[in-house]
Amino acid sequence: MDVLDFITILIILAAFFLLFNVKYLKLPSTIGLMIMALSLSLFIIFGEVIFRTLKELANQLMTEYNFSEVLFKVMLSFLLFAGALELDLRKLGEEKWVIFILATMGVLISTFVVGYAMYFLLPFIDIHLDLIYCLLFGGLISPTDPISVLAMIKKSTVSKNLEAQIAGESLFNDGIGVVVFLTILHIAQSGTGGHVDPWSVGLLFGQEVIGGIGLGAVFGFLGLRLLILIENEYTEIEVLVTLSMVLGGASVAEMLHVSGPLAMVTMGLFVGNKGRSSELEKAAGEYVYKFWHLMDEAMNAILFILIGMQIIVIPWSLDYILAAAFAIVIVLISRVIGVGIPISFYRIKNHIAKYTIRILTWSGLRGGISVALALSLYEYTKSEAGMSRDIVNLIIIMTYCVVLFSIVVQGLTVKKLFEKAATYEEQQGKSK
Fold this sequence. Notes:
The protein is mainly alpha-helical and 432 residues long. 78% of the residues lie in helices and 0% in strands. The chain is built from 18 helices and no strands.
């Protein structure tokens, strides 16, 4: 099957799933798509006797193509740029220190809590995983997924400031998460016995994070100047300019070895019209936002179809399922600690709403980024010094189950917490 046939199948499934969700399930798109993709995968697996050809085709699709590259180089760039377009720059600026603390301290704390907890708990189910691989899992599962989070809060009832905290953290902490993941992976591959060179880590951080933001600022500034020059007169050129920014920026980021995701977010903030001066608000015409809204919905649908169908090729076992159950609980606890400690210190001198820690904890969904990082580990099983395939399979199963739990369970129940927080804020406003 060639690439065009594969893309055709994905688009047909995405259109059908979106229509079915809108007409019948009426769930948030992220949750509805994940449930339908999972249902399709289970249907293919358990209907193997009748649909043997269908399962063989699905296995071929899921093993023939490198989805980690597709996610990082194409889909993630489009989704992050589209998500950043919707952010209110003024509110983001007001919450910049909260976002910075959560995107750095929060990710680091969570990584080590997850890593050490898994290292000490897995032997109880007769799974012995080296500490470095437990930390590797902690690094890839700690960042919250901006695609899942942004889709969830679009219709939320929380305050604009808390919305900015949730969205801003999810958009920026993936850059830190990727740096942490790559650093731990480098240590695992080099066999240094856990020794970390602070200078190398600092260089990697500067190159990936600061380089990504800098590249995004350059492309964003140039793109914004072009949009102002066009003056909404040629909508098709405006769309092409923004499309060129994303595709060109992603390619340059890969060549320079800087963070493509952070570059996309920065570009989106430059072009977005919320919280800007009247001149900059009108830089991009209405059709630019309609186009990127369409791309957001389409890419989001395809992404969660791919994630849901991973169940077809994952080698399941009882031990792996128990390990995944441990991982779900530990990741939730690590999220409480990773959010609670920084927010508690920040709260000493600054006002933070009552439900902030609970909302940030339960709305911290995992998604495509974690799955892409986990799938990328297959590349490291091919070398002599690489990880064994069993270790990678275990990490992928734990990642998949955490993602599934966060999107379906947390995603379906977080609305009640949003409503409770909104009611509390309304009552506080009336009492004043």
